[in-house]
Amino acid sequence: MPEAITLGELLIDFVSVKRDVSLAALPDFSGAPGGAPANVAVGLARLGVSAGFVGKIGRDPFGEFLRRTLDDAGVDTELLRISEGARTTLAFVATRSDEQKDICFYRNPGADMLLTAEEVTPAYVTSARLLHFGSVSLSRSPAREAAIHAALLARRAGLMISYDPNWRPTLWADPLEARGRIWEAMALADIVHCAEEEWEFITGTGHLRTGARKILDAGPRLVVVTLGERGCYFDDGEARGEVKGFGVEVVDPLGAGDAFVAAMLSQLMYAAKEHRLAEEQLRDVMTYANAAGALACTRRGVIPALPTATELGEFLAARKG
After folding, report:
1. Does 22 reside within a domain?
2. Which tens digits make up the pLDDT trace of 224-253?
3. Does some domain include residue 287?
4. What is the CATH number of the domain that holds 114?
5. How many domains does the chain fold into?
6. Is 131 a domain residue?
7. How confident is the model at residue 267 (pLDDT cuts 50, 70, 90)?
8. Which of the residues are catalytic?
């Protein structure tokens, strides 16, 4: 059984080849496997963590490709279900220099939306050390109930729970409902990661410390905000601050956040939940995660860009030298 489990969307990203060209301009696209929770599973596997993915694909060529991609990456796909009634989800992504996300999902319905709570095997979840999921799964039923079911199973079993409350406007009919659903899941998490561009929508404030305090008051133990090339902010209620990022020549920033999360979780998942890490330890974790995000920016695509532990070690050694 895997030590780390991620749950949520697995899809094909069609990413614009040129930057700063709108989707309406019909730019050329390059297809690649994607979906944030699946990306994190591969990122963990690349870093030597036994990882499994829970989700749903269609019985179509895209689904076959995605299963093969996870299998080839060493991710356990025992709970990668197949929908007979919907096709694999697609996303068209316009890359932007400011690292904002311009995404159009083809998901009406997409197979990832149709994962049910009954398809989440309790023994598979409770045998792990870590569960990671995101708010995309919360946008539609029955995937919403499947995600909450998995999180409740994990919480009762004492797993570390990581949550990525990402904001994808095109997936929600009502922003108020989106914010409500996102916050309902917040109390189930130990670690919350958020990208800076989503921070104000989710927390209602542009101030990092104020927003982090609001999330910590809901139950999580650690809040981390990725700040693009500036690095990240962390806050556990006692220790807090920014950790600088690494300057690299950016080829494609799309996978940076997922690489960051995978690297961060690979370091945190073995820490005892009931003990706080010292500020210096947290800064070391965030430096490692920043390095992973930077390395991912130097390659095109998301899953193909996720670094290995050896690559990260060499990158950090070179920067120290």
Report:
1. no
2. 999 999 999 999 999 999 999 999 999 888
3. yes
4. 3.40.1190.20
5. 1
6. yes
7. very high
8. 258
User: Which residue, 198, 234, 200, 237, is CA-closest to 217?
Assistant: 237
- Determine how many CB atoms are found less than 10 A away from the CB of residue 123: 9
Show the tokens assigned to 267. 């370091």
Strands (E), 84-238: 90-94, 102-106, 130-134, 160-164, 191-195, 222-226, 232-235
Could you give the CA distance from residue 276 to residue 23 in angstroms, rounded to a whole number? Answer: 45
CA 58 – CA 67 distance, rounded (Å): 10
Q: From the CB of residue 175, how many other CB atoms can be counted at a distance below 10 Å?
A: 11
Contact 224, 192 (CB under 8 A): yes
- Of 6-15, 145-154, 209-218, minimum mean pLDDT range: 6-15
- pTM here is 0.94
The answer to whether 264 and 193 are in contact (CB under 8 A) is: yes
Q: Is residue 234 helix, strand or coil?
A: strand
pLDDT in tens, 158-174: 999 999 998 988 889 89
In a domain, 313, yes or no: yes
Range of the domain at 124: 4-8+36-88+109-320
Long-range contacts of 66-74 (CB under 8 A, 24+ apart): 66/10, 66/11, 66/12, 66/33, 66/38, 69/33, 69/42, 69/303, 70/10, 70/38, 70/41, 70/42, 73/41, 73/42, 73/45, 73/46, 73/303, 74/45
At 293, give phi and psi (nearest 5°).
-65, -40
Reported as a single tens digit per residue, the pLDDT across 23-48 is: 777 777 778 898 999 999 999 999 99
